[in-house]
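Open question from group meeting: does this chain pack into something compact, or does most of it stay loose? Before anyone orders reagents, we agreed to write out a predicted structure and look at it together. Recording both the input and the output here so the notebook holds the full record.
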Amino acid sequence: MDFRINPENEDLLERAKIYAKEILAPRAEKIDQDGIFPRENFNDLAKEGFTSLTLPKDLGGRDLYEDTATYSMVLYELSKGCTNTAMLFHMHSSISHVITYLGTDEQKRRYGEIIRSGKIIASYASENTSSLHGVWRMETKAIRDGDVYRINGRKYFCSMAGEADYYVLWVQLEEEEDLTKSLGLLIAPSDNPGFKIDQEWNSFAMRGTMSHSMIYDDVKIPVEDLVGRGGDPIRPDVLPKFGFGYSAVYLGAGGGAFDWVVNYAQNRKLMPDNVPIASYPAIQRQIGEMKIALEGAILMLQRAGWMINAHGADKAYGAINEAKYVCAEASAFITEKAIKVAGGPGLFRHNPLQRFHREARAGLIMPPNTEKCLELTAKTVLEGSANMLGS
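Structure tokens returned:
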């Protein structure tokens, strides 16, 4: 297995580290406390060309989605600065790739220009009946009426609702309930009058994602804004990569907590010893546990990325679920232990550990949740494969 970063993209990883430390981290606490969208962060990332990195090279991007090693580590480093921003960046980058991967030449040109201009693309799939915790169903339907589709339904956890410039709707096309034939993607500007925010996002973690619930009330979208064909969004070379990126983002919360608490332990002194607490064996043991958990999760993440590149996302589906499980559990473990190492100051709002811990806990339930990851991993062992629709 080759986990080396593509030399052509090494600059992106170094830039991500700088942005995370100098731009994202100073804003992260306000984003969390106030529950606000990281608009400034997106503007800065767009100015640096980051929001178009997953576009193909012939459309002005860097085709970064195909370089899984670099892409995952860019997400990891950005998340160490602000997990909210990294998650939204991944969602935008993923659906940008899907549009230019499945779209027509005209769609690729049109939306490639839109994405390069700094516009933000959001993607909405979650419904009461479509959670990856179980069998996937879709109640939001798109019925063709002449040269438009009419969409009615309701979506939950709509990240960037009211903030993104375009929404990509995951819908059932017509009355065909077999999603391998009917699941479609339709794109519309976010100012479409049929979009209505139904329930405000107010969570204990990932507060800046603005993941409101939304109602689609007779939304009309031109037929030419259907991306790909029915069933394309859940093709094995498309859907699994979303979960791969989630793993990197949530592990970044653990990585950020680890970096902070190591620095804290090296500088924190208690009387009467007047030596850094990092010199205490009990603290060293806990730092060792965190380091091993972090490195092990990074290796699982890189292994999944290598398998995607070497064998395709369909063959790597088991490894992707294993990575998601290990990264989410490791991050929750690291952030909890970091708070114990820091003691009382680990709970202070002006220190980032409490925020990293809450973000990491969200990773345990982000689809596929850890229990689902174990189930899917077992199925790949026992049956040779796992159905992405959960049936």
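Observations to bring back to the group:
The two ends are 32 Å apart (CA to CA).
The chain has a mean pLDDT of 94.
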